[in-house]
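Backbones bend. Shown next:

***
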Amino acid sequence: MANPTKKQKQRSLKGRTILLCITGSIAAYRACDLVRQLRADGANVICLMTEAAKKFVTPLTFHSLSGNPVYADPFSEHEDWSVLHTTLADQASLILIAPATADILARLAGGFASDLITSVILASRATVLIAPAMNDNMFEHPITQENIQKLRKIGYRFVEPIEGDLVCGRIGVGHIADHTAVLEAVRKTLHAG
């Protein structure tokens, strides 16, 4: 077996815990490939889902792919006594929101802690990396763009959406970035500095 190159060793995600936050977009199915590749790169992946995300892909799918419980309800009972949102927040090497809807961007920009994902993000010191996916008009809307700028200003990072087929039938910018671009952004973010 060949030895891994220096670049491969440098890009390994071994020992890193990534909180993958999946929101209610048709692009939620793309998060399945992300989980598989992140795990293949050595990361521990813990999935958090909004209620809307569960309409597109089931928690069981992400549980099977990640090998970890999937979290959606901030009030669910779990094995040990702990405050769920802070326990998860403290475990994160990186928080990745993919796909990220206009709704989650607005709630984050407004400082809301109205569900498990927003509560975890507010409680964490980990870097937040966001891969938006939405209708082109929603993405280009001045409020969405203002929310993105506000989040960038406080240090959130983005993997820009690309032009592609949108579920509404149009072709436009709002299609989630290819998973290889998202993975490269994860590696760069975790190995920066």
User: Anything to note?
Assistant: Residues 179-191 form the longest helix (13 residues).
